[in-house]
Amino acid sequence: MVQIMPDKIASTASYCVSGTLVCGGSVMHLLHGLDWNKVAVISGVIIGIATFITNVYFKNRQTRAYEAALKKGVISPPVSKGD
């Protein structure tokens, strides 16, 4: 089974969005009445929220994988500085 890495997904999404924006330049005459400052702010907020959700999802998967490896004895728990 081939696993797609998150960085490849992010790169693919970035290139697709970029290509869409370049190809969609001919539609700009329909969008000339928009306030681009508001568009930029709203886009930034949406991208920030999406990034946060993605980060939480993959950190949760990483934590579950770490805990499963600990239970199987594949890795040892970290040593605390007080020991």
In words, what does this structure look like?
This protein has 83 residues and is mainly alpha-helical. The chain has helices at residues 6-23, 36-72. The protein has a domain at 35-73. Helices cover 66% and strands 0% of the residues. The mean pLDDT is 80. One of its GO terms (biological process) is symbiont-mediated killing of host cell. The chain crosses the membrane at residues 12-33, 39-58. InterPro entries: Lysis_S (IPR007054).
Write the layout of secondary structure elements.
Layout: H1 6-23, H2 36-72
Biggest beta sheet summary: none
Fraction in beta strands: under 5%
Our measurement of the CA-to-CA distance between the termini, rounded to an integer number of angstroms, reads: 42 Å
Shape: elongated
Alpha-carbon Rg, integer: 21 Å
Give the helix/strand class.
mainly alpha
Average predicted local confidence, pLDDT: 80
The low-confidence parts are none
Number of helices: 2
Helix content: 55-70%
How many strands in all? 0
Order of helices and strands: HH
Pfam families: Phage_holin_2_1 (PF04971)
InterPro entries: Lysis_S
Protein name: Lysis protein
Keywords: Membrane, Transmembrane, Transmembrane helix
